[in-house]
Design brief:
It is found in: Golgi apparatus membrane; Golgi apparatus, trans-Golgi network. This protein is mostly helical. The protein is built from 10 helices and 2 strands, in the order ααββαααααααα.
């Protein structure tokens, strides 16, 4: 079709305006070539690519006569069109200093980035598809267990240990909350004793007739304040250890238990799916689905057994760690409180040294505003 268009362009006459227009013969010839391309494409789309019977609809540039002119009747000198001029007219001229080969090679990175984008989109779609299928199967299994229609894999011994852990955590959280309340109340009492001792000492200086009485009480309150700060350090150490045990050690084990329970649900879901396919027809398509279901079943079975083992090990170590930590902390709490209320300052300080409890500077026991948020 390109050769036919060029032959038509070479045999047609090109009128040159004589009214002083700045248009050149090359401009008019180029526009007729474009018009020929458009007309031939329209006729090819309608009647097929029979170029021997193609006619040109000529409107004439500035003339009133219009009609259909057979291509065989067009005669005239050949038209030489500069390809670079054609590119400039169509807006496709290359940039200065850039060769056409470089212009086409620049499109390769864009094509590669487009293919990479498509690959990422396909990967996300596959991931979403797998997630949807897995969620559907697990939801179906969960409702089947709720309504008593599906079977559930249960390890009675492990489930009993998990229930004990959850109950123990709730009780330890109550101990932690009460110990924090005791710390806050005792801190306020120590601050009150310190203020009261300062007031007694000031009055002993200003009341000569009661100087001895105010002096005795001031010394007593200061001693109580000092012993209270020592006991406060022991209680703070107790609270910190219980907080680590409850909110870190136990919480880590419960997170593993949650993963184990999710793996158990997935395992039962794919097991039920495999059992449902196994009792169905055994044609070629069904055998392919059974094989895929068998692979998924094995994958989730291995995951379930691995997490089952992890939970058993963590529960064992947690119990050992809990007994060790609580034995030390309960002994510390008992000895410190007993020594404080017995007024035995030496025993109180010895208890803190025994358990390697370091006292904080006065006024630093109260949590900062950032910790309270």
């Amino acid at each position: 079709m390109t050769d036919s268009i060029l032959s038509k362009a070479a045999t047609m006459e090109i009128p040159i305006n004589s009214n002083g227009d700045s248009r050149t013969a090359e401009d008019d010839g180029l526009e007729q070539v474009v018009q020929l391309v458009k007309n031939d494409l329209q006729q090819v789309m309608v009647s097929g690519p029979n170029l021997n019977e193609t006619s040109i609809v000529s409107g004439g540039y500035g003339g009133a006569a219009e009609g259909i002119i057979p291509t065989s009747s067009i005669k005239g000198p050949a038209i030489h069109v500069n390809p670079e001029y054609f590119d400039r007219r169509c807006g496709n001229a290359p940039k200065p200093g850039v060769s056409p080969s470089m212009h086409h090679s620049n499109s390769n990175p864009s094509m590669m980035s487009e293919e990479a984008t498509k690959g990422v989109a396909v990967e996300k779609f596959d991931s979403m598809k797998k997630w949807s299928i897995n969620t559907y199967k697990c939801t179906k299994q969960m409702f089947s267990e709720r309504f008593g229609r599906g079977s559930k894999t249960v390890d009675m011994e492990l489930e009993a240990q998990i229930d004990v852990l959850r109950e123990t955590k709730m009780k330890y959280e109550r101990i932690l909350r009460l110990a924090r309340e005791l710390t806050n109340h005792f801190y306020n009492m120590v601050q009150t004793q310190q203020a009261l001792g300062d007031t007694f000492a000031d009055l002993s200086q200003k009341s000569p007739e009661l100087q001895d009485e105010f002096g005795y009480n001031a010394e007593t309150q200061r001693l109580l304040c000092k012993n209270g700060e020592t006991l406060l350090g022991a209680i703070n150490f107790f609270v910190s250890s219980i907080n680590t045990l409850v909110n870190k050690t136990m919480e880590d084990t419960l997170m593993t238990i949650k993963m184990y329970e999710n793996a158990r649900l997935e395992f039962d879901a794919y097991r039920a799916d495999l059992e449902e396919l196994s009792v169905g027809p055994r044609d070629a398509a069904a055998m392919v689905r059974i094989e895929i279901a068998q692979q998924q079943y094995q994958i989730h079975k291995d995951k379930y057994e691995r997490l089952h083992s992890d939970v058993s090990i963590k529960l064992k170590f947690l119990e050992e760690n809990k007994v060790k930590v609580m034995h030390k902390q309960l002994l510390l709490f008992h000895n410190a409180v007993s020594a404080y209320f017995a007024g035995n300052q030496q025993q109180l300080e010895q208890t803190l040294r025994q358990f390697n409890v370091k006292l904080k500077p006065p006024g630093s026991d109260k949590p900062s505003w950032l910790e309270e948020q």
